[in-house]
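Annotated sample (chain length 152).
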Amino acid sequence: MHPTLPPGPIPGYYLRPRPQGFAAHICASQQHLGAVRALAGAELLAHGIDADVVHSAQLVLSELVGNSVRACGEHVPLVVEVYVTSYGIALNVHDPDPGALPRLRSTPLDSAEAESGRGLGLVDLLAPGWNVRRSAIGKQVRCRVSVEHGWG
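Output written by the structure step:
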């Protein structure tokens, strides 16, 4: 059983169940990011993932979507995939700009002066080995959050 959205259509948000998770086609906005985060949390908890690991996955998802919005602009069409595999939680965010590739900055995560630049450092900490693939319609950032010791 998959967690679901409230009944009725949500403009700019299309949900497609997939094995062990979902793919959400969204028009990037705070409302849709909140809905995707909540749905990801419910989906992962339903699969028995520990709440702390779920929180980490939601944080990574927020950073990936935020990077896409910064690269492409508000209301950009995104495809967000969340699913459980034998090796962890897969999080993929596909956006339409193949040229604006995310890059890891050297900003320390604990820097009190930094106003930005820590997001991918956080992603790298929580989902090491993340990567970017160009596609015919843009790019996809892919990462895996480990569930080692995180199954409920």
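Annotation: The first strand starts at residue 13 and ends at 18.
Annotation: Residues 51-72 form the longest helix (22 residues).
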